[in-house]
Design goal:
The chain is mainly α. The chain contains nine helices and six strands; from the N terminus they run ααββααββαββαααα. It has two domains: 105 residues, Multidrug-efflux Transporter Regulator, Chain: A, Domain 2 (Orthogonal Bundle); 90 residues, Orthogonal Bundle (Arc Repressor Mutant, subunit A), CATH 1.10.10.10. It has a two-stranded antiparallel ribbon. Helix 1 packs across helix 3 and helix 3 packs across helix 5.
Length: 205
């Protein structure tokens, strides 16, 4: 990827999308602008993702001046492992750890993209699981309504636990642009409501 959208940055780092936009609006990070499909998008670098990873780990509790200094240091020296910062007390930030976390999430996001197809001739371009024709948004919505992976598999046998687990991440990283399409499954009462970590689905697939 040549750049990352704020939505992708939020999905990769775990920050709320509003926090990503706030970091941009506060000029802690400065994305480049790129035209795509008649609109302007703001794209972030990998170094800026590393900074946002630190924000997700608690950096945003520090004063803006200190945070800006850290963001600029990462941009200048992206391979730095540790960054000492004077802020009334000696602070040491593990840049290398944040970088490796971002790289791991980027690999997962790349794999997620490979598992999804978006073609005009397939359901009018709706993102679907490869070789399934099942909308990713449908799976994500069912999970949000409380359906378990096993319940979804009972209705959609062409899916797998891994394909089910990646649906929320895909929808967060690649939200649909424009007016949301009609989803006939929305509003229906879930048969049950249970919570479970998606990581367990990936390990048990």
């Amino acid at each position: 990827m040549e750049g990352f959208t704020p939505a992708q940055a939020a999905a990769i780092t775990g920050l709320p999308l509003s926090a990503v936009h706030k970091a941009i609006d506060s000029r802690l990070i400065r994305p480049r602008s790129a035209r795509s499909g008649g609109s302007i998008r703001r794209l972030l670098t990998k170094e800026q993702l590393i900074y946002l990873q630190l924000e997700a780990e608690g950096l945003r509790l520090l004063p803006v001046g200190t945070r800006r200094e850290i963001a600029e240091s990462i941009q200048r020296s992206p391979k730095t492992e540790k960054l000492p910062v004077a802020n009334g007390a000696a602070l040491l930030f593990e840049i290398g750890t944040a970088r490796r976390a971002v790289e791991s999430q980027l690999q997962q996001l790349a794999r997620v993209k490979e598992m999804v197809v978006t073609e005009p001739e397939i359901m009018r371009g709706t993102p679907v699981g490869k070789a399934t024709r099942i909308p990713v948004a449908l799976v994500a919505d069912m999970l949000a309504q409380g359906a378990t992976a096993q319940e979804i598999l009972e209705g959609y046998s062409t899916l797998s636990k891994e394909r089910i687990a990646i649906a929320p991440l895909y929808m967060r990283a690649f939200p649909r642009r424009g007016r949301p399409s009609r989803r006939p499954w929305q509003g229906k009462k879930a048969r049950c409501r249970k919570s479970f970590p998606l990581s367990t689905l990936l390990t048990s697939a």
